[in-house]
Automatic annotation (TrEMBL):
This is Phytocyanin domain-containing protein. Belongs to the early nodulin-like (ENODL) family. The keyword Disulfide bond applies. PROSITE patterns: PHYTOCYANIN. Residues 25-127 form the Phytocyanin domain. It is found in: Cell membrane. The lineage of its organism: Eukaryota, Viridiplantae, Streptophyta, Embryophyta, Tracheophyta. It comes from Rhamnella rubrinervis.
Length: 165
């Protein structure tokens, strides 16, 4: 019979998808635009971008840029655009920063004047509890429901086939 094999394949795919979502994820900061000085009329692009995404411990963000740099700073230094003592610095043009704990992370450009023009960003990394009480839990709950629907459909089909033939 073809159908049980197809179901098995589907289940395997679904299960691997589900466990895949538990792995860490990498985000590219600012999407395709990368890490740039924002346009004058749109200086909040990075915090807008950050608020559209959900970050968890283990996730990473990638900064792509030219002739610029990335710094992680304290909240106070973020507010003042003070880049004199960052806790993290990189200017390779392709920087990956991995979040090792939940909480707030503050990033600025280390190039003079860029942070003042809005090249800065706050990232909120959710604790695993927080994130599962939002998006995570509902998608996990959807999956078994989808599977049981499929199993039910399969059962109905098999039953119909056995009655007909
Ligand atoms: C900013 O200005 C550019 C060109 O002047 C325009 O194309 C763009 O739509 C503006 N963006 C916003 C958010 O106003
Ligand atoms: C930046 O921070 C350092 C150390 O806290 C301080 O000495 C310096 O004056 C600050 N610079 C500005 C521009 O606030």
């Amino acid at each position: 019979m073809k159908n049980p094999m197809a179901l098995l394949l589907l289940l395997t795919i679904l299960i691997s998808l589900q466990s895949f979502s538990a792995f860490s994820y990498e985000f590219q900061v600012g999407g395709t635009k990368g890490w740039i000085v924002p346009p004058a009329n749109d200086s909040k692009i990075y915090n807008d971008w950050a608020s559209e995404n959900r970050f968890q411990p283990g996730d990473a963000i990638r900064f792509k840029y030219k002739k610029d740099s990335v710094m992680e700073v304290t909240e106070e230094d973020y507010k003042k655009c003070n880049s004199t003592h960052p806790t993290f610095f990189s200017n390779t043009g392709n920087t990956v920063f991995r979040f090792d704990h939940p909480g707030l992370f503050y990033f600025v450009s280390g190039v003079s004047g860029h942070c003042d023009k809005g090249q800065k960003m706050i990232i909120k990394v959710m604790s695993p509890d927080e994130s599962s009480s939002h998006g995570g839990k509902s998608s996990a709950a959807d999956l078994p429901l989808g599977v049981s629907k499929l199993v039910f459909a399969q059962f109905v089909l098999c039953y119909a086939a056995s009655v007909l033939y």
